[in-house]
Amino acid sequence: MAKKPENKIIVVGGGLSGLMATLKICEGGGKVDLFSYCPVKRSHSLCAQGGINACMDTKGEHDSIYEHFDDTVYGGDFLADQLAVKGMVEAAPKLIKMFDRMGVPFTRTAEGVLDLRNFGGQKNKRTVFAGSTTGQQLLYALDEQVRRWEVKGGVKKYEFWEFIKIIKNKEGICRGIVAQNMNSNEIVSFPADVVILATGGPGQVYGRCTASTICNGSAVSAVYQQGAELGNPEFLQIHPTAIPGSDKNRLMSEACRGEGGRVWVYRKNPQTGEKERWYFLEDMYPAYGNLVPRDVASRAIYKVVVHMGLGMHNPNRVYLDLSHIPADYLERKLGGILEMYSDFMGQDPRKVPMEIFPSIHYSMGGIWVDREHHTNIPGLLASGECDYQYHGANRLGANSLLSATYSGTISGPESLRLARSGKLGSALTAEELEAARQECVAEFDKIRNMNGTENAHKLHHELGDIMYKYVSIERDNNGLKECVKELKEILKRWDNIGVTDHGTWANQEAMFVRQLRNMIIYAMAITQSALQRDESRGAHAKIVLKSDYDKMDDQLKEALTKKYGKFHFDAETGRGTTDDGNDDLVFFERNDKKFMRTTIVTFDQEKEEPVVSYREFEHSLIKPRLRNYAVAKKE
Amino acid sequence: MAEQKKVRIIVERQDGPKEKPYNQEFEIDYRPGLNIVAALMEIQKNPVTVDGKKVPPVTWECNCLEKVCGACMMVINGKARQACCTLVDTLKQPIHLQPARTFPVIRDLLIDRSVMFESLKRIHGWVEVDGTWEVKDAPIQNPYTAQTAYEISHCMTCGCCLEACPNVGPQSDFIGPAPTVQAYLFNLHPLGKFDAPKRLNALMEKGGITSCGNSQNCVEACPKNIKLTTYLAQLNRDVNKQALKNIFNH
User: What range(s) does the 4Fe-4S ferredoxin-type domain occupy (chain B) (predicted)?
Assistant: First the structure.
């Protein structure tokens, strides 16, 4: 009997999603070429700290999968595909058992079962964890299993290889990639049956963020420029509690608050005039307190610090306080990150409150995929943070390890099914492979001979500053328009970069210059979609300007008056501001009629600009309702 | 206005695996909380030596900058550690940065640690599960044993312990403390222990635990405070027991 042809899948990215997909493909009899910037064991998934959500219901709280489903959809402000979310939450407990069998050292109760902790936006204990390094432990488990398959011959790793672009055959189906060895700088074309992108988030577009230096969104931007649609890129999660730093903002897990941590600033008591600690999250949101979802907490901190001027000690900090919790309990539950805080800040968080501020953390948006994780380019799948699925307008804490893993269990088998479907069109010819390679070689040669006056790393810093200024916690249309202009300017200045390293051995500078261009183009997609979404939803909060208000119909105007009472427009900024003496900003309301749609962004090749449109999605299971964390959730 | 405080850094550079190393000195602005990766990033923004020479930026490896990925290990003032969490304030100046030469140098501070990942194959560094599909409930585990496993499972394959170990190098085949101790981790797991004899037998071979000279450097060097020597000693006992079993069972 003739041997069946072997199915070759290329997986780009070796974080949780890429590794999970790899395992599934190997188990299904396929072969994987696994590409990564770094040894896969060093992928960014390991930075996840607090835990992974799954309805284990081992705390006598009658938790249910439905409750996890509803919390996720409600937390995402009704912008997530509900059928996709349903699949994920149903699979969650099974995935935890898989990890447990693989040897993840989860934190356990006295009886030896998996312990659970509280997390934001969820009333039940539902977060399984391994101390405060859950991501590291989950990633290692999959890394070990992939190593096992490597020994068995199912996986070939290409570590320290950078993905440059996909190669399509003449039918327009993705059948391979071009990649570059980061040490020898050799550029090579690799054919495959199907390609899965699992390249993580674009945090580096904002420069200082909680993401690793490798999370630059460059691969996503590259395929976007080759025709892949983006979904909801304007939704960037800002994590409320990070340690600001000049090289990176380091995450202080939501688990701190899950284990009883409290956020506060000093203020003068409005009645007595005495100085007191103000636990403002508990005050503003009595039902959820410190465990409101991240978008809500970040906005509250921003308001207290920036608008009320109550940030103290350092101007842009609030306190995250664990010092009232017994030290041995903290050591067991949060040891790893408390050590990190001491290492970097030189203070012991068991004794003094930590100083924190919100930071860019996660992208809910990404490459648009269907529920089987196909992109709009046939033969190209995407999974993990680089896709747009599961989280809508805001992600709940501890749902990212879940979505990363779960999406890999979908994209992996689906890639094999597609490989065996007979719908791949023709294989790439030697000429096609060489032509694609040559194009990338020419581009790289051009970059390493750039002789302008701009320093790429300084330009990157400026890009981050611009994005933080205009497209972060509070956005308004004037700022976003200005941002579009400034990004065009940055893109022009990219042409004038000068590199000092013209060589072809481990030339990190030239590779960074290539990534930087992709980052700028991705930033434009974020900004343009934020500009066109005239509403507030989840992480996207937009302030009403006079010019916006004048264009509103009566119904929208009335809704604003109902919520904010009387307000005026600030003479200088044009921003809506309440008249009640608090000077609160007036934000757009959520507008389901117009914007309960997925943002779709495509790349206009000629103008090098994003084109925004909207697409319907599946939301028939849970009827949209207003999100309000001041009161307990009503279903 | 007070004068801007400066930080002086001497980097041992090397253009390629076979090239000769040479030193270059840089000066950057001091700021509180500055760490070595942040300092190298400053050099990237203005790669000019103290002599005013424009040079290619320093090459090194880093990812997470939170001391969990293990990438940025280098020798700082003579000691192997993670660059991201080494604060300038704690160091004597000028600060000397060198690649960890226990491993082949690729360029500047960038080294090739693939040998460590290869060693994890040799010690059978995984739990032999039937598959990723649903099989059954995972076994209950003793929470204290799980706590020990959690400690060892922090090992981020950074290589500090190999760099510090006098028995790792061209003179010996020793695979080093980190991969060796991983065998102990998998032997602790209720399913992983089924393959304990395989792992212990692998450690009896050349480069295994008998190559450990018990110098105790590793436990000092580990940035994750893993009690490496304790587990090496335990493993040594387990390997000896296994050796006896091998004799009497044949």
Answer: 146-175
C-alpha dihedral sign at A302, A306, A312, A313: positive
Nearest-CA distance A62 → chain B (Å): 20
Give B114-133+140-248's CATH code, choosing from 3.60.150.10, 3.40.50.720, 2.30.110.10, 1.10.1060.10: 1.10.1060.10
Query: Do residue A145 and residue B126 have CB atoms under 8 angstroms apart?
Result: yes
Q: How far is Cα B57 from Cα B108, in angstroms, rounded to an integer?
A: 10
Decide if B197 touches A, using CB distance below 8 A: no
- Listed by start position, the domains of chain A span 8-235+364-429, 240-358, 546-586
Whether A344 sits inside 8 A of B61 (CB atoms) is: no
- Return the sign of the alpha-carbon dihedral for residues B103, B107, B110, B116: negative
Quote the percentage of chain B above a pLDDT of 90. 94
Contact residues, chain B, for A455 at CB < 8 Å: 45-46
Q: What is the pLDDT of residue A336?
A: 83
* B83-105 confidence digits (pLDDT tens): 999 999 999 999 999 999 999 99
Backbone Cα Rg of chain A:
24
pLDDT at A313: 62
Shortest distance between the Cα of A333 and any Cα of chain B, in A, equals 11
- Distances in Å between the Cα of A244 and the Cα atoms of A314, A341, A356, B215 are 11, 11, 7, 40
Residues of chain A whose pLDDT is less than 50?
none
Query: Which one of 3.40.50.720, 3.50.50.60, 1.10.246.130, 3.30.365.10 gives the CATH number of domain A8-235+364-429?
Result: 3.50.50.60
Active site residue A294: yes
DSSP state of A471: S
Provide, as residue numbers in chain B, all residues whose Cβ is less than 8 Å from the Cβ of A106. 146
Among chain A residues, the shortest Cα distance to B46 is held by A455
A214, closest residue in chain B (CA to CA) = B63
**Is A186 in the B-facing interface, judged by CB distances under 8 Å?**
no
Query: Which residues of chain A make contact with B154, given a CB cutoff of 8 A?
Result: 133, 136, 336
CB A134 within 8 A of CB A116: no
CA distances from B79 to A371, A480, B20, B38, B161 (A): 50, 48, 22, 19, 11
Cβ neighbours, 10 Å, residue A290: 25
d(CA A88, CA A31): 26
Length of chain B: 250
Q: In Å, how far is A466's CA from the nearest CA of chain B?
A: 18
Cβ-based neighbour number of residue A593 at 10 Å: 9
Q: What 3 state SS string does A162-183 have?
A: EEEEEEECCCCCEEEEEEEECC
The single residue listed with the structure tokens 């079962």 is A113
The widest CA-to-CA distance across chain B, in whole angstroms, is 81
Q: Show which of residues 63-122 on chain B sit within 8 Å of chain A, judged by CB atoms.
A: 63-71, 84-85, 87, 89, 106-107, 110, 113-114, 117, 120-121
Provide the number of CB pairs (under 8 Å) joining chain A to chain B.
Answer: 184
Which H or E run contains A245? none
Give the number of other CB atoms < 10 A from CB of residue B213: 12
Q: Which CATH number describes the domain made up of B6-111?
A: 3.10.20.30
Does the CB of A317 have a partner CB in chain B at under 8 Å?
Answer: no
pLDDT value at B1 more than 60:
no
Kindly determine whether residue A107 and residue B69, on different chains, have CB atoms separated by under 8 Å. no
The pLDDT score that the predictor gives to residue B124 is 97
A361 at the B interface (CB within 8 A)?
Answer: no
